[in-house]
Amino acid sequence: MILETKYQTYWCVFDLPSKEKKIQELEKESLEPLFWQDSTSAQSKMKSLAELNGQVSMWKGLREQIQANLDLVELAILENDFSFLDEIRLETDLIDRKIQEEEFTLTLSGEHDHRDAILAIHAGAGGVDSQDWAAMLTRMYARWCDRKGFNNEILDMSYGEEAGIKSVVMQVTGEFAYGHLKAEKGVHRLVRISPFDNDHARHTSFVLAEVIPKMEEGSDIEINLDDLRIDVFRAGGHGGQSVQKNSTAIRITHEPSGIVVTCQNERSQRQNREIAMRILASRLAELEREKKEKELSDLKGEHISAEWGNQIRSYVLHPYQMVKDHRTEVETSSTNDVLDGDIDIFIKAYLNYRMKS
Question: Are both 266 and 217 inside the same structural domain?
C-alpha cells in the first residue's frame, strides 16, 4: 500500500525513535527532586516534553488508522464485499492529507524554529501613510495568529502622532511560531491611494518586519548586568501624550552591542523591565546567530544584503489588486484575504524555497 510506504518513509525522516528516547529522558529528569528549582528551565523542558509527546502520539495514531484500513481491505477481499470501499477511500485521503501537512514541518527544522517568536514592526519611509501601513500589518499578523490558533501579545507599542503606529513589538506563542514567521522578515511595500492625501494621489509606503526567536533570559543567553544602562520614563499614549503619572516605562541599552529596547505597555516598572529583558535576550541571541551566518557566508563567498530597499513583498491596492512575494514570485489578487491574515501561501512557498536552495 502506497500510504503505508509513505508513512514508513516519514517515520524514518522524522526519526521518531529518537524522539521517544528523548521523551524518556525528559520524563526521568522531571522526576528529579531539584527539577523545579530553576523554574524557567523546567518550564522550557516541560514544554519540549509536551511537544514531543504530541508528535509521537500523532504518528502512532496515523499508524493505527493505516493498519485499520488495511485490515478492512483484506476483509472486503475475503468476503467479496466492497460496499464500504468509498468509506475506506475517504479515510485514506484524510490520512494522506495529514501526512502531507506533517511533511511541511520538514521545512521547520532550524535550530530555533520550534520556539515562540518576537515580531517587531517599524514604520519606514512614507510618513503617516507608513504608520497606517504598520498598523494594517499588525492587524494582518494578529489575524494570522487567530487562524493558526497562536496567541499574540503586544509587548510594546509606539503610536503615530496622526494615525497608525510608529512601531510595535509582539510575542507570538505557538508550535513552530518562529519557524513560520521567519519567512516574514524584511521590508513590506504598500502601493495605494492615500486616505491622508486630499489630492487622492497614489502613495508608496514601507514597513520593516523583524522576527527573532524568543529566548529565555538566564537559560538561553547570559546578560552581564554591568553592560546595561537602564532608564525610566513616563509612558506615552496616542500623539505622545503622557498617560502615566509615575515613571513606569523602561529603556534598556546594551552598551557593547548598542541594542536599545524600550517597553511601556505594562502598568508597573517591574513588568516592563521583565519584558524588555526578554526582548533584549532574544535580540542578542539573534545578533550572535547573524554573526555566525555572516562568517559562513564569507567562507562560501556569498553576500546577501539586508538593506532597507530590498522589499520581500509588495501589496498593490491601486491601480490593480495584487500581492506578490519577490523571493518566490508567488502572487495573488485576493488582497483583502491577505490583509485579513491569509498569508500561509507566502510562508509555505518561502520555506519550501529555502529548503531547496
Answer: yes
- Classify residue 158 by burial, with Cβ atoms within 10 Å: 0-12, 13-18, 19+: middle
The domain boundary, picked from 107, 130, 145, lies at: 107
pLDDT tens-digit series, residues 49-86: 888 888 788 878 878 888 887 787 787 778 777 776 77
- Mean pLDDT (the chain) is 83
Q: Which residue type does 313 have? A: R
CB 219 within 8 A of CB 42: no
Whether 189 and 204 have beta carbons less than 8 Å apart is answered as yes
Q: How far is CA 329 from the centre of its chain?
A: 21
Q: Is residue 112 in a domain? A: no
Domain range for 157 is 117-301+310-356
Q: Is position 142 within any domain?
A: yes
Do 213 and 90 share a domain, yes or no?
A: no
User: pTM for the whole thing?
Assistant: 0.69
Q: Which amino acid is at 186?
A: G
Residues 169 and 253 in one domain: yes
Q: How many domains does the chain have?
A: 2
DSSP assignment string, 268-304: SHHHHHHHHHHHHHHHHHHHHHHHHHHHHHHHHT---
pLDDT for the residue numbered 306: 36
**Where does residue 186 rank: exposed (0-12), middle (13-18), buried (19+ CB within 10 A)?**
buried
**Residues of 277-311 as b/e, b for ≥16 C-beta within 10 angstroms?**
bbbbbbbbbbeeeeeeeeeeeeeeeeeeeeeeeeb
Q: Count of CB atoms within 10 A of residue 250's CB?
A: 25
- Contact status, residue 351 vs residue 338, Cβ threshold 8 Å: no
Given a contact cutoff of 8 angstroms between Cβ atoms, the answer to whether 158 and 131 are in contact is no
**Which residue would you say has higher pLDDT here, 281 or 298?**
281
Q: Same domain, yes or no, for 167 and 185?
A: yes
